[in-house]
Amino acid sequence: MSIQVFILSRLMVEKTYPYKLKKQMTEPIPLDELGGITESKLYYHFDALAKKGLIEPVEVIKEEHRPDKQVFEITTKGKEELPKKIYQLFKSANDINDIVIGLANLKYVDPEKVVALLNARLAEYKAHWDRIMNFENTSKRDRKSENLNELLVGYFTTKSDHTIYWLEEAIIQIEQGNL
To answer: What's the CA gap between 62 and 60, in Å, rounded?
Structure first.
């Protein structure tokens, strides 16, 4: 979903083709590597968006000794769907990684609605984590099992605290108009 939001948001700015978009993702930081986005994934999502009528090819660039490059632009339907896809990112977010593309494209959505979605998601996340932490396992464990349990509880507690902190920080930054 976030790859499609990324593609649609880039096409809101300019017509482009998958290879060019992939190159743009490497500078100034390697977003493609951080997000695990390969050229084949980009081509797949360009194709999927075209099949849904959200983007369309408008030009073919032919260069000698190079493959043809199909240039795409966003359609009216794509412009209507982009905010819905961004809201869906925020609605289904499990951590900050899931909303990075949405945060970068807040200009296409209502920030107050995003804050409401993130607050709801944060409340669900906290409630879920509280249920997990309040689960009492009364089974007898040996020392190695106990050590493993402590290690995992420590890891997941730290991860949960980190997620909660950054979701709250994102909400604050949106509310203050900083993003």
So the answer is: 6
Instruction: Assign domain 1-107 to its CATH architecture.
Output: Orthogonal Bundle (1.10)
Tell me, what's the pLDDT at 138? Answer: 67
3-state secondary structure 105-117: CHHHCCHHHHHHH
Domain boundaries, the chain: 1-107, 110-179
Q: What is the DSSP string of 101-151?
A: HHHHTGGGS-HHHHHHHHHHHHHHHHHHHHHHHT--------HHHHHHHHH
Q: What is the mean pLDDT of each run of 10 residues along the chain (179 residues)?
A: 88 92 73 67 93 96 86 97 96 85 94 96 92 75 85 90 94 96
